[in-house]
Amino acid sequence: MALSTPPHLGVYFSCLLVFMLSTFHPHALICVLPPSFLNMSLCISYAISFLAVIVCIVAYWYSQVYPPCYLVDFCCTEAEGNAVVTLEAFSKFLRTWRSVKESNLLFQERVFLRSGIGEESYAPPRLIAKAEDTNLEDARSETEGLISVAVKRLLQRVGVDAKAIDIVVVNSSLFNPTPSIAAFVVSTLHMRSNVKTFNLAGMGCSAGLVSIGLAKDLLKVHRNSYALVISTENITRNMYFGNSEKSMMVSNGLFRCGCSAILLSSKPSSRGHAKLRLLHCLRTHLGADKKAYDCVHHIEDEEGNPGVSLQFNLVEVAGSALRANILKLARSILPVSEILKVLVSLVKQKVLKMAVKMYEPDFKKAIDHFCIHPGGRAVIDAIGKGLKLSAYDIEPGKMALYRFGNTSSSGIWYALAYCEAKGRLRKGNKIWQIALGSGFKCNSGVWEVLRDIEPSESGRLNPWMSSIHKYPVTKTLEECLAVSSKISSGPATFSKAT
Fold first, then answer.
1. 287 and 355: one domain?
2. Which residues form the FAE domain (predicted)?
3. Which one of the listed residues 406, 429, 443, 462 is annotated catalytic?
4. Cβ pair 406, 254 in contact under 8 A
5. What's 397's domain CATH number?
6. Is the dihedral of CA 184, 188, 191, 193 positive or negative?
7. 39 is catalytic
8. What domain range is 28 assigned to?
9. 75, 82, 238, 369: which one is catalytic?
10. 285 is known as an active-site residue
11. Burial classification of residue 359, based on how many CB atoms lie within 10 Å of its CB (0-12 exposed, 13-18 middle, 19 or more buried)
């Protein structure tokens, strides 16, 4: 038998028998081995074949215990038909309110101006038209319209029938009607009666990765299945129209319309055409800390006006949550060289009592693309500084904020869509999605790109395709508009600087 010729299947069992006999009776080898086995080259051939079988068995077992979670494709809506929120339009909208102080109007205009959001984000037209007089039907119209567009485009693009979906996970923090939003999806798409639905509420801006983590765990149990994950937020019924709490006015200038739909799969057949594979999904919850728990809260002011309160310590709490999350995630994603450098610096500090600074690992040696939650310019800058990221690295999050505003849990998907539209996603690249939200939570999702992804292949699924040539922008809205003196002195017409 030639060395390159793989042995017959029976040889595997012969090798296994030899291994078992040699374990208990080493001298039995002489009796069992045929004369041909005395040839060294054949011995090596059989040994390699035996090890290959063991590797295959272990790999099969691992795939059964930990089935892969593939991202087949995803869609982010561009909110067609909704109102475009320019600074001037926002100013006019504020002045349609029945009772609001001029000083509070100017404060909210300043929040918009300094938020890092541009003049192309979207708001529900019914909210702009009716302000305080919006009702439950208006809120339904916003959410159902966004979800319908995202899901139908996604399923049409990937060629998957709605009846083939096995799991539906929806997250919407502040709007949770009855029947649920997940039930609306089942009704609209005429899904099977045994589809498993989950509707997550109150999970904040980090809920997108909470939903991904839940779907991943469900796909482990329900193998060979599709999971549809939908992340959105409703702002029609969640504007703050009061006068007493400035911490509740901040969100008025930050949050905008947005929705993402993601198709996950545990089917082996999805490996060939899927875009990404989920490597890690990690959650960190600081709810035991009262300051962290209270920094983002849905409350009522003293007059009974509801709204979301954002406390001044939000950036500080976000930093603490991110550090706690990184401590757990780093050991799974960093190369050995970086981990060793951290250990060496730790030994120098704690054991040798040397006055040295703790080594800060370089995450860019493990991650190629960073998709930071576009919650606000200050948070993105703080995360970028903490991780020692370049302007290029934080660009997806900043541009998602500039173009679409804070779309809550769907924001990290607009950032990923930016990377895709720029043609950055190449086979083997690693993507780190970082989401922060009330609770207070920091969630991380690490993905591997399975193939080169061309910008043109997503078409209408990617909301950046019609305007990607204009980005990145190098100046913020505050720098582009000559209005600072007008805002500080009183209401005026907002015009672009020449």
1. yes
2. 68-351
3. 406
4. yes
5. 3.40.47.10
6. positive
7. no
8. 9-65
9. 369
10. yes
11. middle
